[in-house]
Amino acid sequence: MLKLHNSYTNQTEKFKPIDECKVKMYVCGPTVYDNAHLGHARCYITWDVLYRYLKFKGYDVTYCRNVTDVDDKILKKAEAEGKTPEEVSTYWYKKFSESMKALNNLKPDIEPFATKTLGEMISIVKDLINKGYAYEANGDVYFRVKKFPKYGYLSKQPIDQLESGARIEVGEQKEDPLDFALWKKDEKFGYNSPWGVGRPGWHIECSAMSRKYLGKTIDIHAGGADLIFPHHENEIAQSECANGCKFVNYWLHNGFVTINKEKMSKSLGNFLTIDDLLKNYDANTIRFFILTNHYRMPVEFSDEALQAAANGVKRMLNAKPSKVDENLDIKAFNEYKEFVEAMDDDLNTSKALAVLFDLTGKANKDVSYAYTLLCKLAETLGFTFEKAQISEEELKTKLAEISAELGEDFSSMDEIIERRKSARAEKNWEIADKIRVALDKAGIILKDSKEGTTWELK
Question: Among 170, 324, 348, 374, which one has the highest count of C-beta atoms within 10 angstroms of its own C-beta?
């Protein structure tokens, strides 16, 4: 049975959805104003794996991940670049989507935009005011934190501890320093509301989109550990007060990506964009690097760690293909069981990867079921076994490089394979070795099997 660590209770609990066969899952999405970085990759690969694994287990999953397209950072960028907020958010959402696709992340079932859900946000704010949980102050609307006794439970921060660090900023008209904004007055970039022209606070966006598309109580709410406070804490307060029921059954949070033991973030200026990473490492390598570590633990970035991941991926993807066997041998059951046990244990992906490596070894020893099962389980973790493609022009260039290296003219890879075959038959190991070295330099590997020899890019 699947067990997940619930941040709210700080316990690893058996997963039991509200509806026996269906799972409603919400993940806090991006604020679209800049390039996505490795920290975002860690978050969205983690929850992509959970989404895939829940479907692998047979659940009917509805995965909702929002897009924050109205925010201070977007407005600031729009002003700096002389663009409209919509132009900024549209451009960066497209870039974000391309990055997610490049990482082989599945697209969520629902991807709502904050600006398209304003009616629901206003409705929730009105409910909170009518119930006495919120108040209007000169065009702003604030939530009364002390009216919600469970505030601070998710982040494990007592109310008096939170009070000691709370301040009222210049221009704010709060009753209490702890109160947070549900609606902000903004006559320049705002939208019409019962409290004047303004825009939503960040926290109310997720409460509204989650309720609209998944309902008042959902199974899973996930995101980065940096969102626990104040974002998720505030979501719980406003949702439960507005809806009169429990908001989320399982809160899940992934750890940070660190560089030199510091959290990777735009504000610290120590981030690597996904686009930059993909220039040097493929999606499988980045995914492998992230999944080697348990999702709740911090992961330290380094080129050495990514190179080790690249080597691990190469080993797995170079497993010896065997005849596809959909009716897996009964002996495969143990490996399958070990994979499921690892993933059922709060998504222990490092143990799951160990199962894949065991299958890789067995595939290379011609164990009948191993390659088929390896592909099936690797796909559940989001790896792709598609081989890199090469254009006709690129192939011509590589053939020219190999020909120059060997001092012979080759017009096709078949000719090189035949030359190697004859050299080995003649026991001319010097020529055979030179061919291997030349191919290696060109980034090509040969794979021998009973059916013959094939080639592919590294």
Answer: 374
Task: Read off the pLDDT of residues 157-196 as tens digits, 9 standing for 90 and up.
Answer: 988 888 877 777 767 789 999 999 999 999 999 999 999 9
Residue with tokens 């690249």: 310
d(CA 287, CA 104): 9
Alpha carbons 271 and 263: distance in angstroms, whole number: 9
Determine the Cα–Cα distance for residues 136 and 279; give it in Å rounded to an integer.
Answer: 50
- Taken in order of first residue, the domains within the chain and their CATH numbers are 3-263 (3.40.50.620), 281-380 (1.20.120.640), 392-457 (no CATH)
- Quote the DSSP letter at residue 264: -
**75-to-87, 91, 273 alpha-carbon distances in Å:** 11, 14, 22
Chain mean position to CA 315: 23
CA-angle at 438, arms to 435 and 440, nearest 5°: 110
| Tokens at 63, concatenated | 């995965």
Specify burial of residue 324 (Cβ count, 10 A radius: 0-12, 13-18, 19+): exposed
Position 358 pLDDT exceeds 90: yes
Min mean pLDDT across 34-38, 267-271, 396-400 is at 267-271
What pLDDT, on the 0 to 100 scale, is given for residue 264? 66
What whole-number distance in Å separates Cα of residue 337 and Cα of residue 92?
Answer: 42
Q: Within 13 A of 183's CA, how many CA atoms are on the CB side?
A: 31
Please determine, for residue 265, whether its predicted confidence score (pLDDT) is greater than 70.
Answer: no
Element (H, E) at 71: none
| pLDDT, position 433 | 86
At 453 the pLDDT is 83
With both helix axes pointing from N to C terminus, report the angle between 85-102 and 72-81 in degrees, rounded to the nearest 10. 110
204 phi, psi to nearest 5 deg? -65, -25
How many other CB atoms are there within 10 angstroms of residue 132's CB atom? 10
Closest CA to 274 of 38, 57, 111, 45: 38
In the sheet that holds 299-300, the strands lie side by side as: 262-263, 257-259, 299-300
Contacts (Cβ under 8 Å, ≥6 apart) of 95: 32, 35, 36
Distance CA 421, CA 413 (A): 12
pTM to 2 decimal places: 0.85
